[in-house]
Amino acid sequence: MPSVFSDDREQEGDLSLVTRMTGHSVPGIALAGPPGASPHSAKPPAEGHSQLLQATCIPCLRASLLHPPSQQLWDGRRSCPCSHWVKEAETTDMTESSMKKLASTLLDAITDKDPLVQEQVCSALCSLGEVRPVETLRACEEYLRQHDKLAHPYRAAVLRAMERVLSSHASELDKDTASTIILLASSEMTKTKDLVWDWQQAASGVLVAVGRQFISKVMEELLRRLHPGTLPHCAVLHTLASLSVANAFGVVPFLPSVLSSLLPVLGVAKQDTVRVAFCSALQRFSEGALEYLANLDRAPDPTVRKDAFATDIFSAYDVLFHQWLQSREAKLRLAVVEALGPMSHLLPSERLEEQLPKLLPGILALYKKHAETFYLSKSLGQILEAAVSVGSRTLETQLDALLAALHSQICVPVESSSPLVMSNQKEVLRCFTVLACSSPDRLLAFLLPRLDTSNERTRVGTLQVVRHVINSAGSTNTRITLMLPSPVT
Known about the structure:
The chain is mainly α. The protein has 25 helices and no strands. Helix 7 (133-146) packs antiparallel against helix 8 (152-169) and helix 12 (234-246) runs parallel beside helix 15 (272-294). The termini are far apart.
């Protein structure tokens, strides 16, 4: 195949489409046909952004974008893979100027009205980024900065391409380039106060990708976006939450500062969308902290303890449970419940014990309000584990209500077409396992009479619980097996 980045392109007959459409040449870029063809054998282009891409000499884009899908190209070939030009780029010494102009050509084509063209342009940018990541990212950053009026769908497309390149090449960035990209993404993410999710999520994705390698710089920028007494942008909360999952070791040391900025404004949040964003962030912060504490041997600061977050987490718990959980909005209630599960593990032991008489009935009451109960059962299991881990005595007083509610859930017919129903059953069985470790005698006293009932669904559900507990309860299963009247199969 002739080089798609040929150095010998000064001949008059070799003017590329870029020259013909934009008035300037792109050094090192040749007009190419299909693999194995002469560079002069390509069909004359029609007009439009799709044809502008032909100047890049990327065979896959020529074949897939330049003509309608029904038109046959190059002896019947309609497309050719990106690997042809990627391999050429890998083995060709391309100047930075040529690289920049190639990226600019692609970026100019991203506003094409054809969604397929937009998609393929982004794919080409990503492939170019695999070969020359730093130059491609710089070109994208410069393009967005210089085209301030570019509509947000196109800005989002460029940001998504940047995220894909960063996902595997963030470690190749120097500090200056990383800082430039962080400032760009932060600006893009917060440019409008309105919720423009595709744009803001794309910018957030860039920050998360860079944050895997440059977490301090990203966190410093996000903390700069948190102003005392002012509600943060929802996208900032979303990014902080995502970073807590992507890089818990990097984010957790910043949590005290983050929480001290967020907690004073929790009471100011009135819109359900903002409250849901807060709940998601608090859930992810708690999950990140728990991951950090569970792996202190690998943590950057092994001296961190639960006490570092306990007071702040309880302050947030107080608002979520006593105020937001009472909302009429089902989405917000579920967001609160999802957050309370991991948060319960970080509460001070005495506070958790104090809250259980209200917390457990509050969660159980929601089973009657929500058709989808997976998130309730998952959170309930986490709360029960937290209670057992601190040796709660209050749990005993709540046991009858817990067993009745959980048994009702396990007896619900399972539809194979509903993944959440199946997942809910697993979480309910997990709750039974926790209770079996804590109170095996009370559990069996509850289950055994239900093995003799005439209701088949009740018997099947009870057998399912007993079998699961025997298989999962560790040393407890010996006591349970000895108490059973006969082997359960």
